Amino acid sequence: MATTITEEAAVPVAAPGTRHLVLVDGSGYIFRAYHALPPMTRPDGTPVNAVFGFTQMLSSFLAEHRGSHLAVVFDASRSTFRNEIFPNYKAHRPEPPEELVPQFALIREATEAFGVAQVEAPGFEADDLIAAYARAFREAGGEVTIVSSDKDLMQLVRPGVQMLDPIKRKPIREAEVVEKFGVPPEKVIEVQALIGDPVDNVPGVPKIGPKTAAELILAYGDLESVLANTAQIKQPMRRQNLEQYAEQARLSKRLVTLDDQAPLTVPIEALAVRPPEPAALSKFLADQGFRSVIARMGLGEAAGDAATRARNSAISAAQTAAAPTAPADPSATPFGPYETVTRPEALAAWIAEARTAGVIGLDTETDSLDALKANLVGVCLATAPGRACYIPLRHVSPGAGQGDMLVTEPEKAAPPQLAFAEAMAALKPLLEDPGVLKVLQHAKYDLEVLGRTENGGIAVAPIDDTMLISYSMEAGKHGHGMDELSRLHLDHTPVPYDQVTGTGRARISFAAVPLDKATAYAAEDADVTLRLWHVLRPRLREDGALALYEQVERRMVAVLRDMEVEGIKVDGAELARIGEDFVARMAVLEGEIHGLAGRPFAVGSPKQLGEILFDEMGLSGGRKGKSGAWGTDAAVLEELAAQGIPLARKVLDWRQLSKLKSTYVDGLTAQLDQRTGRVHTDFSMANTSTGRLASTEPNLQNIPVRTEEGQRIRRAFVADPGHVLMSADYSQIELRLLAHMADVPALREAFETGQDIHSRTAADIFRLAPEAVDREARRRAKTINFGIIYGMSAFGLAGRLGIGAGEAKGIIDAYFGQYPGIRAAMERLKEEARLRGYVSTSFGRRLWIQDIGTKDPVRRAGAERAAINAPFQGGAAEIIKRAMVRLPRALTEAGLKARLLLQVHDELVLEVPEEEVEATAALVRQVMEGVATLRVPLAVEVGTGRSWAEAH
Hints:
Largest sheet: 6 strands, mixed
Number of helices: 38
Strand content: 5-15%
Strand order of the largest sheet: 3-2-1-4-5-6
Low-confidence stretches: 1-11, 301-327, 402-411
CATH superfamily of the largest domain: Ribonuclease H-like superfamily/Ribonuclease H
């Protein structure tokens, strides 16, 4: 072939005289650009993040493109001839985000400004037009490259027609199609007809996956031959489905087959490449405020005079030689050596290189894990795999201190490094440049560190976070720390922190680490982060996690950063009074425990307690551990308490008070910022398997809600003068998700009409008139309503209700008999987990279930319970995250000064000016209830008070 796409160049390069048409999938570029960048607006307020990303991608492509003909192909409308064949085609696809809609026209203007032909036709999808132009151009003797990674276009691959993945920069030919579908390109539509496509609502045949479909097509040749030979298929369910859904498969084939006879609305010769008109292009870019693109392309005033342009060109050429394009395999380039930047001119060169790269790895090195107290010690940049540097800023002489305590030794000079203020002033424009994407691992920490005034006061944006990219796709499958991701995806073990700082009492602060060791460790972090981005970012779309990451997880970074910085006020005097009361009550309990035991002993010692209970008192049911000591955990004591042993109940009460005192009274006092009187929790974003946030240092999510002690502790959390605390709590959100996912008419009716859900359940399963439901019946119904979400067994229900296992089984049977959809949903979730290894929330988040395939029945039963519960916890987590993402902007647009402070499971806590309570409550309820559309309405309960306890 005269035209080639090489792994190195990864762009079409035509030999002189060769006719080569490049067709760019415009819709793919638009949505990729929109989701790749955070919200951006031009001076008049028009959103332009997708326009900016599109211009960057198009300008980069044009700089490398060497074809003779070029066109960007767009979708003209949502409705096409396929909707006439099948009205439900793409019916459940959401409308484009409202911030994207005004950008469609601007993107077409951008295409025109770049001098590139654009093609679209009402009634046809862009894919059909690509098929038609590819056919016509190939028949005229030319060659075609389709710039897209869309699997639906792979049916077009053949000699003279190939695809180019714009993210991986890799060609897609027959071998890649076979790897994807298991069949050659000409058989792709046969496989797609069988498997369908849930994204586009193409039905296919139930229970026929890609592997099975490929086997059938390879065995019989095409769809019709498969349907004609179903009698030969041995698997009964497969045979039955193929016969039952034969017409559905034929319909699906019509839907997935691209129409290569679609009209050529622009003559082929009009697609000939032409250079852009500089003045028009410069004006368009200037109107959008894209100064960095103007400068990069050498247009307009931003490029400066001829001498400046020449100098910039020389610098660019040198940088291009020094910073190779990311390889197809990011793990192939060696890790290091890396550069230590200690001179202003070296820093300037790295900053220029970073601007040219457009995407950089970024990391910070500090002297503390607490982002709100840490001193910035150094900054790391990576511009390409293997190409990274470390910029030391506050290093001291090696060995000058241990831990976080730095002691300057006059006889030892600090190592050479840039002046802190000078370096941060140089880095600030780069790190705030909207045209350079900063890729971080656990971005929230670095954003908090860099955002503090004493560390430079830098508002880093836009960002990507490799931890959250991984978490969005594989929550529950593995950890998402950098070292684990590096081993998993790059087959590389990074330099351990302990190796450069030491361990235990001998550990030194990172600021005292010699620069050569600090560079090897720190620059590698930025390098690994950028490599992980190259590997993981392209997978978001194919794993169905792109919208989740872009619209929820990434946007949560800034929301949580602001919440953590804000903190919540604590009344130290009230906390002290609570602590004194707890100590007094613990002393009384200790005396009572000693009396029941017959002698004094250390109540907090599990070993001594076990000896009292099982050796001296001779109680049954004790179990010894490997150490030979009796087990006295909460489960053992609860069992003894249920048997009427008062000593066990007293010890449980003592332990509860002890835990509350150490965790919340002592813990909060230690965490209290003496300057502000507030505590600042750390929200962990990727620690749970369900998508829920976790709270640490201090943990504010596990304060008991319904106990007197828990309420007392919540009374210590107060509002600033002139403000109140507002609690906004989703009402019974997991049960609402159950009614939605299982589609239970009775539960839907109860929620829609505002009935008490537990009373309604009691009336249904116990066959009672509504007025005959008493407190005990409601209690039983409430226990099973919540327990069923956690896969509760008859044994578990019996223990909760204090009844026999037989009676409990009867209640569960009655529950499922009344609500068969719930049992069906539970079985469906377990089957989904067994087949795929994960279950999905109503919003598409995959939650991976460990041990679902194990042979150990106990572990497998636990995994099945997790599979049942995960979509409800995960769905609830997603709903409240969506609310958190939208609330700050909604409050700002409404001119309200309320601030988000805490998220505790299904509850948000805000601090609100007294005069804005009514307006804020109405807006909060409107936003929270409107973030998702379920088969049942969402409901939010709002309360206010001077303290958290009063508000809840």
